[in-house]
Design goal:
152 residues; 29% helix; two-stranded antiparallel ribbon; alpha/beta; binds iron/sulfur cluster; globular
Amino acid sequence: MMKPKLLISACLTGKNTKYSGGNNLSPFLSELEKRFDLYLICPEVMGGLPTPRDPSEQKNNKVFSNTGKDVTKEFELGARLSLEIALKNNIQFALLKESSPSCGTHQIYDGTFSGKKIPGEGVAAQLLKEHGIQLYSENEILELLKEQTNED
Ligand code: SF4
């Protein structure tokens, strides 16, 4: 039987795409690979930003690095390219890294680079959601496995 398709933040699969040059490897990766066909995205890299890169945060509907560089265009391009992959492959679910200015599904940093989080969505997460893709964070993997696969 065909496995459901899942869009996933590349850093959750162990790719070193984080701003720091590291990753956010999920302890559930092998389970996810077993249950889903994974389609990896890293909106920030796809938008043309290097790795490692300066951390960025959203502020007033734009995105700035911690050195004050406006990286909104790169973030928006990465979001559009991520959406393109989802639409082209008819993907209905995405598992995204929480709190990222691209991938955050429930919260983001508040734009002051002080470590404070506020409710909100990353640029790519928001665009995917607007197009009807159901978002899960890495804190909701168990729900994802339960709701979107038939096995128990
Ligand atoms: S943009 Fe998303 S996929 Fe890329 S490193 Fe950040 S959280 Fe991970």
